[in-house]
Amino acid sequence: MVIDGVKPSRVLIAKPGLDGHDRGAKVIVRALRDAGFEVIYTGIRQTPEMIAAAAMQEDVDAVGLSLLSGAHLTLFPAICKELKKKGLKDVLVFGGGIIPDEDIPALKKAGVDGVFGPGTPLQTIVDYLKGKLAVAK
């Protein structure tokens, strides 16, 4: 759908690994849809390859990752690597969940642009994406 001549940004939200707790991801999906983004939710237990393939298939502008299991230092970089392998180096990657502050620099070095922990206001994430994706377009 085009609003005021502008096509909304497309965002893929994914739950990598064995983490089956998806309430937070679903809250983000709803908040982004309410803010005017086109959102694709892959569901739980996705592999890095599955997430990258979905990002390519859906022609997304951003990939949001939600993880509570503690495997973020393994899975988030693997997803960034898979996206690059598919030629999606311009896709913005952001993540959230239970991620210790000391792990954020390693995630950023691996290609994760933004990291949001528990309690982050939804508007903060919406504003982050609007700012980052407006610059990219």
Task: Give an overview in words.
With 137 residues, this protein is of the alpha/beta class. It has a single domain, classed as Cobalamin-binding domain (Rossmann fold). The protein is built from five helices and five strands, in the order βαβαβαβαβα. It has a five-stranded parallel beta sheet, with helices on both faces. Helix 2 packs across helix 3. The longest helix is centred in the last third of the chain and has 15 residues. The model has no long low-confidence stretch (mean pLDDT 93).
Number of strands: 5
Morphology call: globular
As residue ranges, the low-confidence spans are none
Strand order of the largest sheet: 2-1-3-4-5
Fraction of residues in H or I helices = 40-55%
Provide the residue-averaged pLDDT: 93
Q: Main β-sheet: number of strands, strand sense, barrel status?
A: 5 strands, parallel
Structural class per helix/strand content?
A: alpha/beta
- CATH topology label: Rossmann fold
Radius of gyration: 14 Å
Distance between the termini: 17 Å
Count of helix runs: 5
**How much beta, percentage-wise?**
15-25%
Going by CATH, the architecture would be 3-Layer(aba) Sandwich
Query: Superfamily at the CATH H level?
Result: Cobalamin-binding domain
| Tally of individual domains | 1
Order of helices and strands: EHEHEHEHEH
